[in-house]
User: Fold this.
Amino acid sequence: MKEIVELSQGWKLYDKECNEKFEIPYMPMQVHEILYYHKKISDGFHWGKTEDCQWVNDKTWVYETKFDYKEGKVLLSLPGLDTLCTIWINGMKIGEHRDSYLPFQALIEGFLKQGENSLCVIFEPVKKELERISQEYKELLNITTLKPANFIRKTFHDFTNYLGNDEDFYKTGIYAPVQILCYPEQVGIHDVQVRYSLNERLDQAKVYIMPEVFGIDLRSNVEVTVKIQFCGKTLWEKTGNVDDDFTASLEDIQLWWPRGYGEQTLYEIHVQVIKEGTEIDE
Assistant:
């Protein structure tokens, strides 16, 4: 079975151009929260004010920590990155991310060594990227209502004074738990995509489930089981190969309603990877 290790302790933050390092008391924390904890800025950032923290926008910020590795496939999960950053393992760049809404995931065992390993996430200044966009798309910006911020996948609240936020207050950093997922059996679930369609009466549904399993070189003794449950009852179940997509037909669908109009009903989809009769991931 996979092992999930949350990297919540042992982190440090520093300005790439400065040697001073700040201990991060717990993770996740974004840059302004860490600097406030160490009394480098006032609590004005809570209200979106920037009188004493505008300098934060000009810096390249580095998060770093260490973790141990033994064996097996390893998936690095960074579900909350805000926003423009690169990810490094043991001094080697493994990827980059430019979207505050989507997670970053990568299989990293090829970059690891036995024992202690280092992880760094380097956040480039959003301010610098806005300046680059302003120059590169100058003609387009002059003839449209677009603004440089429209080119960045980041919450619009950081670029407006809506509800009192200053326009040059750009949050940055890690805002969701960082996890290392270890797979001793060398196989596991990387992602599950779900789509559905309803009939005209909205009482029947077709549900399309597309699991993505890695380590498929072991497919000869690995299978996938998919279940759809509602209120603890299994409505549909099927077992197939790791390459299979699944299509389920459901009757008497209970819809989700906005508050005040009905119940907020939810259906659960469970995907299990089974190797030689033993569940190794879900």
Notes: The chain has a mean pLDDT of 91. The radius of gyration is 23 Å.
